[in-house]
Structure to design on (1264 residues):
């Protein structure tokens, strides 16, 4: 039996897959003061459902896969270790200046961000390596020892070291590490070249700073999780999810905790890839996860999940850029809690302000007074107020209607239903723009893609999003309400290794290239040898970070070969660059040589034979009315059939309007859609037929 | 407006605005990701916007302020004037400062969006600062050019470069014969065409989906809404008139005392209007600092938008409430050919912004903004030479860093603001990337303590950058300002650090160099560039004591300065 547990901001999701492939889903509240408790609570729910004591239940679990927001929360709240930053002399302000850039050039209410590590804890190291790896100025070891003494005096617990061109020659960073170990016992450190080999010193520095600052915290968190699970009776393998969409053993995460920083949203495309390919083989896949406050979009392009180094914690240019390759996730402030209001000029706005979980939407009856997207969905009849979370949480529909009337309908001079439909339409538009941004950046045409709706609220407006973007097929997996946790069950053990070496195809050195690739392969071999018993299907995928001459930004280009043995192999690389570039930017530059600035390999292997099982049908589904009155944007009122998700027949064609319900979600299907259920349990909705609801 | 047009409610208005902004953003993303030159990629010195058929700015992607507020409207008008018969498949290259472009370095592609019935509905504009434009010296900012002839830029006043979606390669070849590192220009040209065509495609799709009449209604309603928001924002200011000045340092071709820019700002709160009069300024000068009409209008508008509530949409509707008064042949007005406007987006434009926002600050507590650090320092200079590693010629603008942010009533300065026309959007170069791309090394880059514009809210500190060639000689071109006239504070705030530039000889000695220069650096020499800081807002003695202590701890100021200036 295996468990996948994803600790989110509000809920801790648990998916259990038993040895026969039956899935079960549980949700417990997240406990920020002691997040391990929330994990144990969720497991207790599962044990209770199985009618077993916790110890007996855990004893039968062979794999426990864990994703956590603990690291990212610590960064956001500044609750990390006191960390020092060591930089090349003459360059103390790497973390202050960052890479420049700003959003909203006229908005001065946004403060210039503080550096991740204060200037007061920044130390300049006398040394300098040049671009060619040569030593321009030798390391002044005495000065480093003096810095170490200051570090000890100032109560520093962690050190980030980022020296210029350490990726071309790491000798100084390594020597600094030896001196820290000698002079600062008990202080943990991160070396930039080892953690995040890339040129652009700020990205290495930022990654090293975040990583070092998390080491003490994540070491003890994972230690505590492991100990408490073991004490409770678990003796299987504890794996932790990474923001590269893979998983690794928990003790390895403690060595480089930045890898776990955004693991939740990074797992959604893993699940999306599986369900998307089942629904429309060969198509690109857009994976959207609707939460209470944010809407996260990620992609699967040609079967691959694109990574980016432009990964921000917090808002772009205000938060912290990790600079560390992560699954590319575009996030906008739109979700069930997004607040609707009308401004002084009579314009409707939805979000980015959110009512959050507390007080939450008006219909929750927890003191919220501002109407939200969720309230609009209740008012339109999309959500049955008596069947929210399977009826465990009754909603106040009248309060929702009154708030919409007062705050939106009256100011705009329209009916409550029209106002609610307008809120849904505008929220939909905000989500559509998030998809438009990431698809244009990654070169995907939504009209040839499939949309996966994840998150408990996804079903409410995904049909409108799909119509607006002319996405032909929308898929709501039966595990959609816990898509990241489902992705966790499917993920592979994976590690990435990178090297920074500049090379151009105008003057390609196959021998040097092969030495670089061989060096990466050796590391990957070691990883695959150490992953342990029971793993299978080991894979290695080589890539380069490449660009045309004089371009500034690189793109990730898959390498068709693992070694260059002929001119044809080099041409293969060039062609792969042209294809990738054309796909993303719609043109190829045959005249330009290809410049490579980074090389990488991903080593991965599978752990479980079964990719994912099927949801166990719920024993007791409440008696439901056969139809319900709902409102759609433009087309207006309709009598929609109410169907139980788990009872839909496989491959039978149904037609809208319909509300397909499960205890975790409602899927809204507009009047003109055809839908059916797949073998894997997913609900597929075909939107080829154009609906009026697409138009504002 | 015809009465039979369909109505639009506040929700539909919001959705359609979102759609137009989405199109502009898609254009901008395409341009950013596919462009070649450093100035485009790293400084984000580009823009994308949509102009109505009657040449009003409707929607812009988040773009460089100096590019889009006014300019695209004037360029689109010139396109219509020169080409009354617009056809589907046309595209126009435009960089003429005499016909609406900001300055010759900003090559722009205009594509008229023509519907299936042949009616011109909108114009999409993609604009990008080029690494080179064929000037007589290797820089796109020729500060001392006596006129456009000495400047040497090829000028394209809305020249048709595509017909039936096919490029006129005669024009491309002309550019290739004249522009340094032509493949870099060609790459940016293709990126701009690509971005404009994406914009065209998307607007056409929107018109087909929504209906052109509905989009007409939207245009009218959206501009009216924006005007109303602007009126609302202006009505929060007190009425009154202030004159503020800001002075550009003297360089070759300017009066000895420099170029004083005077902005008379009148707030008519009752009428909900602002009048900015720039007519009382000197005539155009025999140098490259003169403003184009686009930059004169835009820099005044930036001063206004920096000073008021930030949520007002920036489009032609809002502009109706701002009357920018210009005169012909003025250094900050409407230039006559062959006046050179080579550096129109930066130096004098920054002075117009500064004077405008300072006047508003002095008029109204809680509004306005201190002066922003001026000029293009050598750290933002254009380097060129022959790369000894490849034997190839190179030219590129560096963005090794600029600070310059002025304090506002809300916050301490945005540190990496660069200059008023950029608004802080600029990226700052990675030292490693610069050392890889050019044969240079960067010895140091650090903020200087005690250079902030002191105030209740403080202006940016100066940045010192030292760099030089590696195994070769390089030319560095720059048009620095703010050596004599540092960024002034407002409402009792103090002046921020002044700019300086030195050459460090091989023996380590420092020699001050001319601030407008194409400096030839030999191997072993370095250039030390100290950038302007930014002015403070409010009296330093009123600064929160905890913040002063934090400033000391973080090295922004020394304890001595905390005592003498902040009274701690």
């Amino acid at each position: 039996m295996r468990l996948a547990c994803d600790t989110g901001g509000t809920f801790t999701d648990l998916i259990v897959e038993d040895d026969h492939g039956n899935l079960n889903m549980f949700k417990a509240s997240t406990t920020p003061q002691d997040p391990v408790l929330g994990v144990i609570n969720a497991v207790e729910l599962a044990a209770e459902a199985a009618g077993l004591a916790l110890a007996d239940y855990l004893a039968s679990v062979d794999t426990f896969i864990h994703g956590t927001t603990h690291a990212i929360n610590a960064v956001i709240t500044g609750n990390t270790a006191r960390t020092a930053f060591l930089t090349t002399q003459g360059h103390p302000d790497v973390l202050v200046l960052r890479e420049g850039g700003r959003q909203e050039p006229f908005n001065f209410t946004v403060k210039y961000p503080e550096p991740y590590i204060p200037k007061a804890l920044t130390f300049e190291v006398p040394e300098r390596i040049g671009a060619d790896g040569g030593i321009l100025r030798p390391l002044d070891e005495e000065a480093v020892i003096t810095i170490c003494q200051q570090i000890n005096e100032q109560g520093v617990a962690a050190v980030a070291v980022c020296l210029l061109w350490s990726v071309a020659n790491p000798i100084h960073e390594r020597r600094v590490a030896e001196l820290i170990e000698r002079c600062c016992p008990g202080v943990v450190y991160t070396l930039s070249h080892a953690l995040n080999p890339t040129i652009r010193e700020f990205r290495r520095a930022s990654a090293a700073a975040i990583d070092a600052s998390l080491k003490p915290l994540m070491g003890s968190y994972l230690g505590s999780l492991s100990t408490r699970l073991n004490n409770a009776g678990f003796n299987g393998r504890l794996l932790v999810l990474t923001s590269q969409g893979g998983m690794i053993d928990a003790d390895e995460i403690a060595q480089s905790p930045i890898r776990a920083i955004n693991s939740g949203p990074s797992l959604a495309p893993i699940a999306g890839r599986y369900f998307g390919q089942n629904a429309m083989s060969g198509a690109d896949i857009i994976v959207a996860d609707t939460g209470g406050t944010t809407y996260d979009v990620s992609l699967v392009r040609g079967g691959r999940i694109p990574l980016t180094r432009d990964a921000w914690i917090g808002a772009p240019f205000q938060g912290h850029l990790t600079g560390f390759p992560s699954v590319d996730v575009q996030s906008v402030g739109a979700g069930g809690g997004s607040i609707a209001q009308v401004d002084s000029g009579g314009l409707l706005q939805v979000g980015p302000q959110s009512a959050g979980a507390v007080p939450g939407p008006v219909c929750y009856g927890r003191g919220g007074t501002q109407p939200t997207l969720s309230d609009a969905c209740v008012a339109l009849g999309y959500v049955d107020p008596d069947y929210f979370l399977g009826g465990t949480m009754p909603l106040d529909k009248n309060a929702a209607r009154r708030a919409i009337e007062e705050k939106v309908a009256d100011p705009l001079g329209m009916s409550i239903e029209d106002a609610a439909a307008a809120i849904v339409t505008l929220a939909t538009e905000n989500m559509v723009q998030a998809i438009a941004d990431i698809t244009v950046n990654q070169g995907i045409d939504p009209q040839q893609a499939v949309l996966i709706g994840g998150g408990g609220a996804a079903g409410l407006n995904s049909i409108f999003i799909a119509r607006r973007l002319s996405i032909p097929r929308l898929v709501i997996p039966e595990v959609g309400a816990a898509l990241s946790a489902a992705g966790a069950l499917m993920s592979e053990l994976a590690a990435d290794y990178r090297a920074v070496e500049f090379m151009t195809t105008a003057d390609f050195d196959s021998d040097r290239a092969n030495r670089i690739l061989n060096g990466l392969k050796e590391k990957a071999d070691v990883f695959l040898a150490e992953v342990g018993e029971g793993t299978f299907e080991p894979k290695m995928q080589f890539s380069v970070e490449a660009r045309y001459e004089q371009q500034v930004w690189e793109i990730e280009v898959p390498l068709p070969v693992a070694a260059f043995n002929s001119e044809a192999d080099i041409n293969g690389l060039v062609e792969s660059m042209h294809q990738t570039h054309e796909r993303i930017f719609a043109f190829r530059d045959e005249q330009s040589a290809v410049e490579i600035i980074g090389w990488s390999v991903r080593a991965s292997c599978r752990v479980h034979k079964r990719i994912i099982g099927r949801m166990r049908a719920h024993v007791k589904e409440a008696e439901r009315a056969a139809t319900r009155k709902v409102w759609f944007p433009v087309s207006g009122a309709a009598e929609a059939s109410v169907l139980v998700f788990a009872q839909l027949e496989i491959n039978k064609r149904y037609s809208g309007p319909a509300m397909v319900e499960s205890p975790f979600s409602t899927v809204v299907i507009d009047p003109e859609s055809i839908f059916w259920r797949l073998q894997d349990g997913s609900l597929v909705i075909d939107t080829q037929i154009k609906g009026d609801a697409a138009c504002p | 407006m015809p009465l039979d047009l369909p109505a639009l409610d506040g929700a539909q208005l919001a959705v359609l605005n979102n759609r137009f902004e989405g199109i502009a953003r898609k254009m901008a993303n395409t341009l950013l990701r596919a462009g070649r030159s450093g100035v485009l990629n790293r400084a984000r010195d580009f823009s994308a916007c949509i102009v109505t058929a009657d040449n009003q700015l409707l929607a812009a992607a988040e773009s460089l302020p100096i590019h889009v507020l006014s300019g695209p409207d004037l360029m689109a008008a010139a396109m219509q004037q020169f080409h009354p018969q617009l056809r589907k498949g046309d595209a126009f290259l435009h960089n003429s400062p005499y016909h609406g472009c900001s300055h010759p370095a900003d090559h722009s592609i205009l594509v008229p969006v023509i519907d299936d019935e042949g009616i011109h509905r909108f114009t999409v504009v993609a604009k990008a600062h080029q690494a080179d434009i064929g000037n007589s010296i290797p820089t796109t900012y020729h500060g001392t050019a006596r006129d456009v002839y000495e400047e040497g830029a090829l000028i394209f006043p809305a020249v048709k470069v595509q017909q039936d979606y096919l490029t006129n390669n005669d024009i491309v070849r002309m550019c290739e014969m004249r522009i340094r590192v032509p493949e870099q220009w060609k790459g940016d040209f293709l990126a701009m065409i690509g971005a404009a065509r994406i914009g065209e495609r998307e607007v056409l799709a929107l018109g087909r989906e929504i209906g052109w009449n509905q989009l007409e209604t939207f245009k009218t309603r959206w501009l009216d809404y924006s005007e109303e928001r602007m009126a609302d924002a202006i009505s929060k200011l007190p009425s009154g008139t202030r004159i503020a000045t800001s002075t550009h340092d003297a360089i070759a071709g300017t009066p000895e005392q420099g170029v004083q820019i005077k902005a008379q700002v009148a707030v008519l709160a009752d009428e909900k209007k602002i009048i900015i009069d720039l007519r009382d300024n000197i005539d155009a000068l025999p140098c490259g600092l003169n403003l184009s009409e686009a930059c004169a209008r835009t820099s005044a508008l930036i001063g206004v938008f920096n000073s008021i509530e930030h949520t007002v949409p920036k489009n032609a509707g809002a502009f109706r409430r701002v009357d920018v008064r210009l005169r012909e042949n003025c250094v900050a007005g409407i230039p006559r050919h062959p006046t050179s406007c080579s550096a129109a987006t930066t130096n004098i434009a920054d002075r117009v912004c500064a004077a405008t926002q300072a006047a508003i600050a002095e008029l109204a507590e809680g509004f306005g903004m201190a002066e922003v650090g001026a000029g293009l320092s050598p750290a933002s200079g254009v380097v060129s030479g022959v790369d000894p590693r490849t034997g190839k010629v190179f030219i590129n603008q560096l963005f090794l860093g600029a600070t310059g942010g002025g304090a506002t009533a809300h916050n301490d300065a945005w540190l990496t603001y660069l200059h008023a026309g950029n608004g802080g959007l600029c990226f700052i170069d990675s030292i490693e990337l610069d050392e890889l791309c050019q044969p240079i090394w960067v010895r140091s880059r650090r903020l200087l303590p005690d250079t902030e514009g002191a105030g209740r809210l403080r202006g940016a500190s100066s940045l010192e950058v030292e760099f030089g060639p590696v195994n070769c000689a390089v030319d560095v071109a720059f048009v620095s300002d703010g050596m004599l006239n540092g960024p002034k504070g407002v409402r009792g705030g103090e002046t921020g650090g002044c700019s300086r530039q030195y050459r460090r000889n091989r023996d380590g000695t420092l020699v001050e160099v001319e601030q407008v220069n194409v400096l030839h650096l030999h191997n072993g020499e370095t250039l030390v560039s100290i950038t302007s800081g930014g002015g403070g807002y409010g009296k330093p003695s009123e600064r929160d004591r905890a913040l002063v202590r934090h400033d000391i701890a973080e090295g922004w100021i020394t304890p001595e300065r905390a005592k003498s200036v902040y009274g701690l």
